């Protein structure tokens, strides 16, 4: 018998870039830095604490937020199929955006709304200042939602993913942030940010896209 491996139960991870939108990164960065300065002046951060705004970027984010929301809506439409649709679109996307700033030694947890169909991260500045040092950390870690069941019975055994190589199942996947990279994934995935030790400051936006039913 020569077995063939077929991947089951696919989970989408969409990776793109906002670099194709001229000036968008600069607009978002300027708005975030201005709001960061205002809020941390009123309430200074504690040692080791990264900054996170409320999900109200539409109030202070300016034209850049409007452009990002349109981009996200277009991306979500391409990534999603309404199997019950027989006429005009039945859903529209409501986006909730939160800005973050982290300095060296700070960590952050990605908290998403339970009603979000899509969630994501948009990295305005990765904080690496062009460096490639892996010890800087700060990767985004995506966890298999089936844990711990996948490792309970025989923790040292792994599923072989490719019969021609030694590639095996991993319980988490780590993605190194890149400036202007946009990640979208199902809202039920657990996402974490590992401690960041880069030379610069990391600036990013947490995204929630909620599918709202259009009025009849």
Write the layout of secondary structure elements.
Blueprint: E1 14-17, H1 24-42, E2 51-52, H2 57-60, H3 62-79, E3 91-102, E4 108-109, E5 118-125, E6 140-143, E7 172-175, E8 181-186, E9 190-193, E10 202-213
Antiparallel strand pairs: 1-8, 2-3, 3-10, 4-9, 5-8, 5-10, 6-7, 6-9
Helix pairs in contact: 1-3
Summarize this, please?
Helices cover 19% and strands 27% of the residues. It has 216 residues and is an alpha+beta fold.
Structure description:
This protein is of the alpha+beta class and 216 residues long. The chain has one domain: Jelly Rolls, CATH 2.60.120.620. 19% of the residues lie in helices and 27% in strands. It is built from three helices and ten strands; from the N terminus they run βαβααββββββββ. The chain has helices spanning 24-42, 57-60, 62-79; strands at residues 14-17, 51-52, 91-102, 108-109, 118-125, 140-143, 172-175, 181-186, 190-193, 202-213. It has a six-stranded antiparallel beta sheet with strand order 1-8-5-10-3-2. The chain has a four-stranded antiparallel beta sheet with strand order 4-9-6-7, with no helix packed on it. Helix 1 packs across helix 3 (62-79). The radius of gyration is 19 Å and the shape is globular. The mean pLDDT is 91.
